[in-house]
Amino acid sequence: MKKLAVFFLLTIFAASCQKEEESIYTNNELSYNLYKSSDFDYTGKVTVRELTSGGLELRIEMVGEKGGSDYFFPAHLHFGAYDSPDSPTAFLLNPINIKDLTSVTKLGALSDGRVLDFESFKKLNGHIKVHLADSGPEYQIILTAGNIGSNNNDPQAFDPSKITLCSPYY
């Protein structure tokens, strides 16, 4: 019984000495759907999380066929809705790895110089596109797309025939 009591006290002491892990995230989080936008069977989700530093992290998780090679799908944050005729690139996101179909990007200053916080991201007039390739004819193939921020992201509002192509230049 003594051994059990000593073990119990040592466990409590050890637990109280360990530094509690601090989360790098606040409780602020948003999610947006990425919709199938070509003959390739990919969909996805973008999760925006606020960092305790005030910055933002965007995580893209795609659903579809994974691969075993080193191949990456380029992803861009654009100004405007996905069907806007002129939607310049706002930020180059980290590419999606075909092996696990995920990407994580800490959002920095946008191409217009703005740095977004969580509240301003919710009001952003923007969208995200994921391309098949970063150049050549495959660049024009949009695997998934979806509005973000203040734009309508409902499935009923998405029409892949209205997706505009984007310039490969930042």
Structural class: mainly beta
Strand content: 35-45%
N-to-C series of helices and strands:
HEEEEEEHEE
The count of helical stretches stands at 2
Low-confidence stretches: 16-20
Percent helix range: 10-25%
**Main β sheet profile:** 8 strands, antiparallel
Instruction: Report the principal-axis shape.
Output: globular
Using only C-alpha atoms, the radius of gyration works out to: 21 Å
Mean pLDDT: 89
Provide the spatial order of strands within the biggest beta sheet: 5-4-7-8-1-2-3-6
Termini Cα gap: 70 Å
Number of strands: 8
Overview of the structural elements:
This protein has 170 residues and is mostly beta strands. It contains two helices and eight strands. It has helices at 2-17, 118-122; strands spanning 25-36, 43-51, 56-63, 72-79, 89-97, 102-107, 125-131, 142-149. The protein has an eight-stranded antiparallel β-sheet with strand order 5-4-7-8-1-2-3-6. The longest helix is centred in the N-terminal third of the chain and has 16 residues, at 2-17. The N and C termini lie far apart (70 Å). Mean pLDDT is 89; it is low at 16-20. This is CHRD domain-containing protein.
Features:
single chain; 170 residues; CHRD domain-containing protein; mainly beta; 8-stranded antiparallel β-sheet
